[in-house]
Amino acid sequence: MTKLKQQQNSTLLLEHAFRQYHAPLYFYVLKFIHDKDQAKDIVQDAFLSLLKSENETQIGNLKAYLFRTVRNNCLNHIKHTLVTTEFAQNEKERINREIEFFDTHQTLVERELQEKLTESINELPEKYKIPFQLSRIDELSNKEIAERLDLPVRTVETQIYRALKLVRENLAHKGMILFQLLFQKKIKHIS
């Protein structure tokens, strides 16, 4: 048989197999995969396997060959899906553990900073402590503080400046490098 005749026979065999077995194979795959697009791909791969097979003439039972190929492709797909799902689940759990660790660590650092900040503020002389707390904790403007304490605005500004300087120095002595937080106008609730 010539090569051209062989190709024609192969094409006819493939067309016949496709018409006869495509639908049954597709529904067979859907029982296992439950994804229409993936089922189509698996069936298509079986026909491509048949097309690539150099020994088409030695395939004894075409129907059995196609169903076996589809079944193996389904098993491979399921194994791959399980591995992918397990990897994704493990990765999700790892990320959650890292987030929990970071949150716990961050909370501890913030709590320590908050305690040292509170200590530093409590150690301020009263004439600096009150304007500082009104400014940074109660978020009053310098003008409002001056009216409330019956002081000139410039005096309030000076007292807040000196309070900041003392708190910075105190925190630096306590080994707190994060004292830059004091430069923020808003300091979260300090008890």
Question: Can you describe this structure?
Answer:
The structure is a single chain. With 191 residues, this protein is mainly alpha-helical. The protein is built from 6 helices and no strands. Helix 1 packs antiparallel against helix 2 and helix 3 packs across helix 6. The chain is rod-shaped, with a radius of gyration of 38 Å. It starts with a helix and ends in an 18-residue tail after the last helix. The C terminus is likely disordered.
Keywords:
0% strand, 78% helix, disordered C terminus, 191 residues, mainly alpha, single chain
Layout of secondary structure:
Layout: H1 3-33, H2 36-52, H3 62-122, H4 126-136, H5 142-149, H6 153-173
Helix pairs in contact: 1-2, 1-3, 2-3, 3-6, 4-6, 5-6
Could you give the distance between the termini? Answer: 96 Å
Structural class: mainly alpha
Number of helices: 6
Query: What is the ordering of alpha helices and beta strands?
Result: HHHHHH
Question: Ranges with pLDDT <50 over ≥5 residues?
Answer: 178-191
Quaternary structure: single chain
Query: How big a fraction of the residues is strand?
Result: under 5%
Tally of strands: 0
The rounded Rg comes to 38 Å
Q: What profile does the largest beta sheet have?
A: none
Gross morphology: rod-shaped
Average pLDDT, rounded to a whole number, is 81
State the helical fraction: over 70%
